[in-house]
Amino acid sequence: MKKLTMKEIAKLANVSQSTVSRVINGKEGVNEKLAKRVFDVINEVGFVPNKAAQTLKQNQSYIIGVCVTETYNPYFVELIDTLESVARNYGYNILLHNSKRNPILEWESMENFISRQVDGIIFVPTSDYNFEKISKLPIPVVSVTQTHEEFHSVGLDHYKAGQLAAKKFIYTNHKTFGMVGNIPDDKFFGFRDTLAENGFTFQMKNYITIKETSSNSYLIRQDIEDYLDRVTNLEFTSVFTTNDLMAVEFVKAVEDRGIKVPEDISVIGFDDTILSKMMGISSIHQPIEEMVKTTMKLLLDRIEKKVSSKKVQIKLEPTLIERKSSRLK
């Protein structure tokens, strides 16, 4: 993608070059409509201020920007730690930002990365809201943990993960099924479709919705308790959760109500973090080290222009780690 000059931006926005300069540098005294016109052009073309563009073109900062959506989940903590170690082995440092699941903060992180002249950006993962703008960034970008057609990405095959959980429950003679998660995603679709293929219908009343804003264990537990308070009895004997944090809080909540795991209900989590290991919860394993190494290679190959710019999506195979929270037979 061509990196435009400030003069060219001014021409596209039909303003003076000095106006563009004042807008970019946050100077006061710029008419609001003119500023919006300049920002619209900048967002459309993915403009990088000329000085940064020249630096990016001629040199390397050996810094990679990493934007995460959350830090309360042990899975992301482990992933970031591994990412930092792998980057260091390649001679790079990381600049970490937490978007807190806020697309505006995510975009501000991107702007900060550009101003800091990073060589590439890794999103862990990214929000749908900024897909189009991210795809226009003038530096290499890779998303990790989820795959997207819009840009290079590495992630687990979430659909197959849902299939694994469903097959395990069916094999151990469960007839009723529940799920805990945010909005239904590929994990849910894989779970639901596999049940259907085996003659079972997933009842959406058995889906415990965790709000996107529920950003810690306490809030997740609250969402689960709210659901349990609304139903007289659980109408399922097995439940698949979309991360281990939800699995842990679900187990605590039902056991506090006298429901035994796995005697009364089997539980399978997702991520296979330290939480699932400590609590003895069966979980879909995410190969963090393989995922991070694949992501770094994908990004560095593009930073060093070793490969074409064709978008690449890499899906890794999930595995189920069985522990005491689910029936063995």
Tags for this model:
329 residues; alpha/beta; 434 Repressor (Amino-terminal Domain); Rossmann fold; 6-stranded parallel beta sheet; 12 strands; elongated
List the SSEs and their pairings:
Elements: H1 6-13, H2 17-24, H3 32-45, H4 50-58, E1 63-68, H5 74-89, E2 93-98, H6 103-115, E3 120-124, H7 131-135, E4 141-145, E5 152-156, H8 158-171, E6 178-181, H9 186-197, E7 207-209, H10 217-230, E8 238-241, H11 244-256, E9 266-271, H12 274-279, E10 282-285, H13 288-303, E11 313-316, E12 319-321
Parallel strand pairs: 1-2, 1-3, 3-4, 4-5, 5-11, 6-7, 6-8, 8-9, 9-10
Antiparallel strand pairs: 10-12
Helix pairs in contact: 1-2, 1-3, 2-3, 5-13, 8-9, 10-11
Q: Major sheet: size, sense and barrel closure? A: 6 strands, parallel
Percent range of helical residues: 40-55%
According to CATH, the fold-level topology of the domain at 158-286 is Rossmann fold
Distinct helical segment count: 13
| Distance from first to last alpha carbon | 56 Å
Walk across the major sheet and give the strand order.
Answer: 2-1-3-4-5-11
Please mark out the parts with pLDDT under 50 across 5 or more consecutive residues, or reply none.
53-58
Order of helices and strands: HHHHEHEHEHEEHEHEHEHEHEHEE
Radius of gyration computed on alpha carbons = 23 Å
- Taken from the alpha-carbon principal axes, the silhouette is elongated
| Beta-strand residue fraction | 15-25%
Q: Can you tell me the CATH superfamily of the domain at 158-286?
A: Response regulator
CATH architecture of the domain at 158-286: 3-Layer(aba) Sandwich
Q: What structural class do helix, strand and pairing data support? A: alpha/beta
Q: What is the CATH class designation of the domain at 158-286?
A: Alpha Beta
- The overall pLDDT average reads 89
Q: Report the count of strand segments.
A: 12
InterPro entries: Cro/C1-type_HTH, HTH_LacI, LacI/GalR-like_sensor, Lambda_DNA-bd_dom_sf, Peripla_BP_I
GO molecular function, one term: DNA-binding transcription factor activity
Pfam family, one: Peripla_BP_3
Organism: Fervidibacillus halotolerans
